[in-house]
Amino acid sequence: MDDKTIYALSTIFGKSGIAVIRVSGRNAYSVIEKMTDLDITALKYRQMYFTPILDPVSRETLDNCLVVGFKAPNSFTGENTVEINCHGSKAVIHAITDALSKLPDFRMAEPGEYSRRAFYNGKMDLTEADGLADLIEAETALQRKVALQQMGGTLLNLYDKWRNQLVNILSYIEAFIDFPDENIPQNTVFKIENDVANLVEEIEKHLLNNNVEERLRDGFKVVISGPTNAGKSSLINAIVKRNVAIVSDIAGTTRDVIEAYVDIDGYPVIFSDTAGLRESDDQIEKIGIELAKEKIAQADFNIFLFDASVDKPDMFTPYLNSNNYVLVANKADKLSDETKKQLQKDGCLLICAKQSQNIDAITSTLSKYFSELFDKSSSQIITRRRYKDALFECVENLQRFNLQKEIELSAEDIRLACRAIGKITGRVEVDEILDKIFSSFCIGK
Fold first, then answer.
1. Under a CB-based contact definition with an 8 Å cutoff, are residues 248 and 257 in contact?
2. Most buried residue among 154, 217, 231, 341 by CB atoms closer than 10 A?
3. Is the alpha carbon torsion for 371, 375, 376, 382 positive or negative?
4. Is the separation of the CB atoms in 31 and 8 below 8 Å?
5. What are the boundaries of each domain within the chain?
6. 218-368 adopts what CATH topology?
7. Is the peptide bond before 227 cis (omega within 30 degrees of 0)?
8. pLDDT in tens, 54-77
């Protein structure tokens, strides 16, 4: 990363009422000196000024804008920063960014470079940077809530606490390495090994409780499956409140997996409508049926749907190998009261997909199930696979630790465990990790 002043559009490119162009770096205030008529000596930081923005060479007026300056280190990046709030037309945006390119030592920002500079300048750690990325991508209320918690330091505080504990343990061990003639007192050995064992237990509990992990970002996978003509396509259409699947009385109409994204009480859910489960001689349909079985095995939750006027719920017995499912009896309008009571006794939900009756019972069941998963993970949700990998690496090193072997080897176990946690927060210099994280950001962020 060089020390040039960077600029970029921080809002979506296109026609809009307002666009924000952010400038950050050592020479950011030259924008005010060379592209406005404002008196730089009288400028108050964090205060907006209405002013024409001028081309630094031709002095042509490009737009009338609101300009605000932030003095380092009190800015997002920790550097001198200027934000230009201009009109959101493509012509204005192009004109101002072209004008900025004429200033010496200015260049266009790279993807994620503002956040990367904020990290290098100590304005955020890597978990907070990931939280920011998640907040930008958030589509549901729960995604927003979790992202804000992470930006607020919920994971940083937890992982820093563990790292500090390891540093304290390492300091004890290093002290005995420096004085090899001194034997480690037995009570000290007991305390150190007990502290390590407690830490391993705490980290493993954190890993065990995090079954939601990336699902909050990518979506929970819910599969609707059942025999042909059970009403699967009608059900997915009723849930998403639009026609995403073809509804037909012809058996085998759905041959591929049809997916639809839905927000259920803040939980992002991807519904999959699968091919009907039956024996078929049609080669294309057989592929769809096999794909349906794979989807059932991979699902976070299964909706097993059957036509209650024809089939029985025990047809799904081979698939009921977990608690993450619900049996749904469709076409309840064709059933007798006695049949309805028996199906409810068997734990089935009664619906009429074609008429969108009692669909809320299904979404409520899903919401309750995901809520229980979320509650188990508490507010400290592991939102990235790399966090989990680093924590497993940390635990592996701690499990190898004991003070019965060479003390230098014991110290190395603790040191490697520290380094593993440091990979999460950015306390170690691992460029490939930084590149992977910040390359996913948009240009203006």
1. no
2. 231
3. positive
4. no
5. 5-109, 128-210+382-438, 218-368
6. Rossmann fold (3.40.50)
7. no
8. 999 999 999 999 999 999 999 999
**How confident is the model over 252-277, as a mean pLDDT?**
72
> What amino acid occupies position 146?
V
CA distances from 51 to 32, 37, 48, 65, 102 (A): 10, 7, 10, 6, 20
Contact (Cβ atoms closer than 8 angstroms) between residue 295 and residue 232: no
Answer CATH for 128-210+382-438 from 1.10.472.80, 3.30.70.640, 1.20.120.430, 3.40.50.20: 1.20.120.430
Q: In the prediction, which pLDDT does 260 show?
A: 83
CA distance 440 to 391: 23
* Cβ atoms of 203 and 394 closer than 8 Å: yes
In contact, 227 and 306? CB cutoff 8 Å: yes
Q: Based on C-alpha coordinates, what's the Rg of the chain? A: 29
